[in-house]
Amino acid sequence: MHLTKAKVVSNEKIITGPAYMVLEDFPIYFPILPFGYFPNSPTYSSGILIPKYGEEQNRGFFLRDGGYYWAASEYFDLAVQGDIYSRGSWGTRIKTNYKKRYKFSGNFGFEYAKNKYGEEGLDNYSEGTQYKILWSHSQDAKANPNQTFSASVNVSSSGYDKQNAYDMNDYLTTTKSSSISFSRKFENTPFNMSMNLRHSQNTKDSTMSLSLPEMTFSMAKVYPFRKKNRSGKVKFYEKFGINYTSNFKNSINAREDEILSSSFATDWKNGIRHNLPISFPSFTLFNHINFSPGISYNEKWYFKKYNYNYEEDGEFTGNPSSIPDNVQIDTITGLNRVYDYAYSVSASANIYGMYIPRNPNSKIKGIRHKMSPSVSFSYRPDFGKEHYGYWQEVQVDSSGNTRYFDTNLGGIYGGSPGRGESGAISFSLNNNLEMKKLDVRDSTKTDEEQNYKKVKIIDNLSISSSYNLIADSLNLSPFNIRARTTVAGVSINMGTTLDPYMVDENYRKIHKYAWNERNGIKKLGRITRANLSFGMNFNSKDKKKEENKQGGNQEGAPGPGEEILPPIYDEYVDFSMPWDFGFDYSLNYSGPNRANPNGRVTQTLGLRGNVSITDKWQMSAMTNFDIQEGEFALTSFRLNRDLHCWNMSFNFVPFGFRKSYSFTISASSSMLQDLKIQKQQSHYDNFSF
Question: I want to staple 514 with a disulfide (CB 3.0 to 4.6 A). Which of 113, 129, 143, 526 is the partner?
């Protein structure tokens, strides 16, 4: 800014007469500012927040973000802002920041908007109200080492970001979550306590999940038979340990408009869960195989259960989809204990294989293969027996057919333990393949001094499944295969799930192995799910790092091996353009089912990049492409120019629902943030109501 006249009051304000802009030493005499007032205080000061002005096709002319800022004290402040549109829409925002040194800090914000679209009285007229609550609170680490309190709240109505957000990331976010947590550690004891208030929502279908509250009390592992003043080695029985965890939870999952009208007795789910794992001392067999036995006991306390009755002429259309309409459900309130237990023993080992090339001149020093097999056996009794009271056999039709129904259906910690006795053998195998090769980049060392580096050929290749020895059919569980490796700097992840059993015409599994020879072809299994993903980033070389590698010094003298250039080269401009580029590819396959008889394949490709054309020109772009649909998703371009005291930016979304552009020239100084020229087309103009 070129000021023809100015008066500076130190640490208070700057008052100017006529002034005009200067861009890159080029004066722009129009427009001329007749006068200016700029606060210049080293501390916070209260004052008016200048609104932005503009026009939108749907909401009309607007004044936005205008209001008042109150610097209340060194501990907190308050800003009140508002928006107003010529066609009746308006909004308001309140935000405060607070901080107490060595204690806590945070901020709180509330936003409310009422939007009107179309002409009142016509079919295209609509209006709606939205809200948004933001709260962030953190406790200083020095405040209390045994007690913490924190909060991260982000709650809004489902349509708020779609109709009021100007940030692209906010617009693309469809899921939100919040957490308010308090924890306390009881000093010199193994006990801990925590309490959480949680929230999550999906703005696509306006569903919301609340946990108000969730409390956990835990006891760290203790060894009751271990001596306090022990001498010598730990005895076998002293390794016996026990720990305990209890959890109370009260939650609901419903649409936003149903939360306030919900019934606490029928719609909210609550209960208490107790977990008591008992660990026995592990031991090693043959110096290689590790055995670990264990017992687990779980108990859930619910405050209601269900009773089922068959009514021949009943039509209870409110029943869950898994229960016939002619089965009546009665709710019985009161404390209801649901417990289960299981025994297990596991064994694991590490097996190594080594290959060393016979050629002494080989650049490969060796290849190592590591296998980690694991086998475990677990037993669980049949909790479907009548004396447990978890499952009720009920007639379902006039022919006398019966079905078993869960008396704890839909419990917050899950329903009743499963019917049927289980004695399962679970097994898994993890593989890792590494190679040690000569680092050929260092040619200055002798053969004895050469460095070797490790190269991971296969980071991990695993397969896992289980077999139920007691079940009368479908004993074998699906095989889960996962692999991860790196090829030429590209990290590749892949996986698949193979179901060993075939399905009937209704896609229900039958007890017939899928790998049986069929039409002369043997199949390993039925692929139900598969995925493949990889990505890579490319970037230009860092000039400063290259100079350091070449040994160049700060004096300008050439380092060892550097070429000495004539002085004339110093007069030329270095046209190097720092850049970076990245891509991500993902492929997902879902096997045939009732909804998709031919299965489903999805492929997406994401591209992103940045380039500094010169020291002052930067350009960036990003896009996503749905290969199956043959369509581009959100695509954006950004061009930025540093004008010394000013900054110029151009943002462009060429197509799609967010189609828009904006061109801005603004002062770089935060004190002059309201001094700018802006031309834009809002993406809200793409709305049709």
Answer: 526
Structure tokens at 565: 């250039």
Buried b (16+ CB within 10 A) or exposed e, 64-91: bbbbebeeeeeebbbbebbbbbebebeb
pLDDT band (50, 70, 90) for residue 554: very low
CB-CB contact of 197 with 179 (8 Å):
yes
Bridge partners (DSSP) of residue 157 are none
Q: Are 460 and 482 in contact (CB under 8 A)?
A: yes
User: Which residues neighbour 116 within 8 Å (Cβ) at sequence distance 6 or greater?
Assistant: 59, 87, 88, 89, 125, 126, 127
Interval 141-193: pLDDT, tens? 888 888 999 999 999 888 788 777 777 677 777 788 999 999 999 988 999 99
* Amino acid present at 187: E
Q: Which residues pair with 374 in a beta bridge?
A: 348, 428
Give the confidence band of 10 by pLDDT, cuts at 50, 70, 90.
confident
Between CA 45 and CA 626 the distance in angstroms is 51
DSSP tag of 548: H
Burial 649-664 (b: 16+ CB within 10 A, else e): eebbbeeeebebebee
Q: Give pTM, 2 decimals.
A: 0.64
Q: Using 50, 70 and 90 to split pLDDT, how confident is the model at 523?
A: low
- Report the distance separating Cα 355 and Cα 367, nearest Å: 5
CA nearest neighbour of 294 among 373, 226, 379, 222: 379
What proportion of the chain, given as a percentage, has pLDDT over 90?
26
> What residues contact residue 433 under an 8 Å CB cut-off, 6+ apart?
367, 368, 369, 370, 456, 457, 458, 461
Spatial separation of the C-alpha atoms in residues 45 and 37, rounded to whole Å: 14
Q: Which of 488, 481, 477 minimizes the C-alpha distance to 532? A: 481
Rounded-to-integer distance, Cα 689 and Cα 687, Å: 7
DSSP code at position 169: H
Contact status, residue 114 vs residue 126, Cβ threshold 8 Å: no
Distance of CA 549 to the CA centre of its chain: 39
In three-state secondary structure terms, 38 is strand
- Give the integer Cα–Cα distance in Å for 252 and 270: 9
Read off the tokens for 454: 């490790």
Residue 104, Cβ neighbours under 10 Å: how many? 15
What is the predicted pLDDT for the residue at 103? 93
78-87 — which CB contacts under 8 Å span 24+ positions?
79/49, 81/49, 83/113, 85/56, 85/59, 85/60, 85/61, 86/59, 86/60, 86/61, 86/62, 87/58, 87/59, 87/60, 87/116, 87/117
Non-local (6+) Cβ contacts of 183 within 8 A are: 147, 148, 192, 193, 194, 195
